[in-house]
Amino acid sequence: MESKLTKSGMMSVTYEGRTSEFPVFEGTHGPRVVDIRAFHKETGLFTFDPGFTSTGSCESHITFIDGDEGILLYRGVPIDDLAEKSNFIEVAYLLLHGELPTSTELHDFNHAITMHTMVHEQLKNFYSGFRRDAHPMAIMVGVVGALSAFYHDSTDINDPKQRVIATHRMIAKMPTIAAMAYKYSIGQPFVFPSNELDYTSNFMRMCFAVPAEEFKCNPVLCDALDKIFILHMDHEQNASTSTVRLAGSSGANPFACIAAGIASLWGPAHGGANEAALNMLEEIGTVDRIPEYIARAKDKDDPFRLMGFGHRVYKNYDPRAKVMQKACHEVLGAMGIKNDPLLEVAMELEKIALEDEYFIEKKLYPNIDFYSGITLKALGFPTDMFTVLFALARTVGWIAQWSEMIEDPTQKIGRPRQVYTGAANRPYVPIVQR
Ligand code: CMC
Questions:
Q1: Cα of 96 from ligand 1 centre, angstroms
Q2: Sign of CA dihedral 190, 194, 195, 199
Q3: What pLDDT sits at residue 182?
C-alpha cells in the first residue's frame, strides 16, 4: 500500500522544559492526525487512550466515515448510492480493489468467488460436535477458525497469490458456513450452494430450501438482504476490524484472523446490537410503554440503554439506518405484513427519542441496528442468526482491511502499552509466612 499522507504542519509538545516536534498529517477527508510514533523516544511518555477514542491506528484507503455529517463512503462512493444501485459482488470488488469493476472484471471476480462456494466435506464433521442449541456465532468462530486446518495452500501470508485465494475463499465460503450453522440448529439437512444463483439468492436458498421442495426466492427479499449485506460490509476501524488487524499484525493466517473478528463482533455493543434491539422492541411490546423505557434509558442508576441508539462515531443519523428503514418497509410490504407491532413501537420510539432533550444533547440517533432486527425477522431469520449475517457481510471489509495491512510497508505487530497501577515491586512471600 502506497502512503498518501501529506504533511500539513508540526505540533510541539513541551514537557519538563524540553520541547519536541511532531509532524501533523492530512488525509483525503477527516481530521488531521499528529504522528506520535516518536513520542515515547522524544518525551519518555506514553499516550493514554483506552478505547482508542483519539487514536488513529493505521492509514487506510478503504472506508471513510464523517460521524458529524452522517456520511459513509466505501472507496469514496456514498453508501446510499451503493445500496440503491449496486450489488454484493460489485461492492465487494470495490472494497478489495479500490475501483468499481468493468463488466469483464465483474464477470471474472464473480466467477472466482462462485468457484469457491463449496466447503471441504470433512468440515461438516465440525457441526456435529456442537450441541443443537449452540449459538450460531459460537459455531462460526469455531468453523471459520478451522478453515486454516483445511486450506493449507492459502495460509502463506507472504505469497500474494495465496492471499488472493484466501480472500476469495473467505468471501465465497462464508454464506455456506453460515447457512450450515442455521440448518444444523434447526435439524434440517445442509443445502449445497448453487453457482447459478447470485451471491445473496444462493445464501437465501441454502438457508430456506429443503430437499423435499422446490425453492424460489422472492426477488424483493433477496434484494433487501443484498442491501443489508452492503450496508454491513465495512465500517473502518471498528472493534472487530481492529481485532482482525491486530491478530493479523502478528503474521497469523487470514482464516484465524477472521475468526478473531467474528468473536469480537459477537458482543452486544457491536454486532450483537441488532439482536438486542429486537429483544428490546419485543420487551417494550406496545407504544404506551415507551415512556417507561425512555425514562430508564435516561436514568443514570439504571444500566438499561436504548439498543440501536447511539454510536461511537456517528453523532448524527447513521446513513445506514436510513437505507435500513426503507428496506424494512419494503420487506414488510413484500411479506404482506401490515401494522407490524414491532415496527409501530420502533417508529414511535425513534420519534420520541429524536425529540427528547437527553438524546438530542448526547447526539444519540438510531444506528443501523435499530431497524435491521425487524427486517431480518421478517425475512425469516431467527434472532440468533442476526450477528451471523453481519459477520458474513463484514467478512469482505475484514479481508480487505487485512490485505491492506499486509501490503502496508509500515505495518508492525500491534503492541499497545499501558499505565500500570497494580502493586509496587515487592518480594515473594513463602506460603508459610502468608
Ligand atoms: N441509550 C441511552 N444512553 C446512551 C446510549 C443509549 N443507547 N448510548 C449512549 N448513551 C449515553 C451514555 O450513558 C453516556 O452518557 P453520560 O455521558 O451521561 O455518561 C453518553 O451517552 C455517551 O455514551 P458512551 O457509552 O460513552 O458512548 P460510546 O461512544 O462509548 O458508545 C455505543 C457507543 C454504541 C456503545 C453506545 O451508544 C451504546 O451502548 N448503544 C447501544 C448499543 C448499540 O446500539 N450498539 C450498536 C452500535 S452500531 C453497530 C456497529 O457499528 O457495530
A1: 30
A2: negative
A3: 95
